Amino acid sequence: MIPLTTNQHSFFFLSISKPTPLSFHPHSLKLKSPFSFFSLSSPTNSNLVRVSNFEVSVFNSDHEEKDKGISIELHDLSPNGPVYQKTLQLVECSMFAALTGLVYFLSNSLAIENYFSCFFSLPIVISSMRWGVDAGRKTLVATTVLLFVLSGPVKALTYLLKHGIVGYTMGTLWRSGASWNLSIFFCTIVRALGSVGFVLISSFLIRENILALITINFHASLTFVLTASGVTSIPSMNLIYNLFGILVILNNGCFMFLLHLLYSVFFTRMGMKSSLRLPRWLEKNI
């Protein structure tokens, strides 16, 4: 008989292939409850909430700053805002300067300057009374520059000496609340100096001393009147100069008085009577 031999590898295989029971330990597995995830994720959520709150606060601050800037711009552009007022002042000054320059240019071209000479200083006075002395100065400079371009330096200087400086002086005194007597006195002096300056400029341009010609003719006329009346004395040239100066001041004083009267009535009709310091007799009659 053949003896049976067993293979040890087969037993090894069988031993391995035998299913091994799993050992189950209840403490080896840990169940994760949903609360543990929430507890782990809660710091992240709190950080997100904080970041979102910070972003919202930054957004609100930026939005408030934009709204504040827009409100400031709208306030500046409102009828009572500084930007609107400055723009309106500039527009009015430029319009007054353009109107005055055009009227002066046409009146000189048509030889009717004497009929409109009382209105050439009015725009400067209106600008000074409405917007201040700076606005009057701007109107004066703009009108002079415009006439310098349109008519040349002679007409520009003529306007400046006879009308521009007078209007600026009157507007400054009226704006500061000066009395009529003081205003008429200073405006008369300025007008007289402007007239003498105009004569000197004309003398320089035509190469002739017009002031000497005026005084010599005045001296001859006065001597003839005295001789015809039986007076044999001849007046000196100093007396002639003094009489000439007095007549120039009287002429300009009468003109400035009428100009003050005309402008007072004009401003009263414009509704600016409260800003004027009128004498009692004129305030009662207007």
TrEMBL record:
Q: Which UniProt keywords apply?
A: Membrane, Transmembrane, Transmembrane helix
Residue intervals passing through the bilayer: 112-133, 140-160, 180-201, 210-234, 240-267
This chain's protein is named Uncharacterized protein
Task: Name its species.
Answer: Lupinus luteus
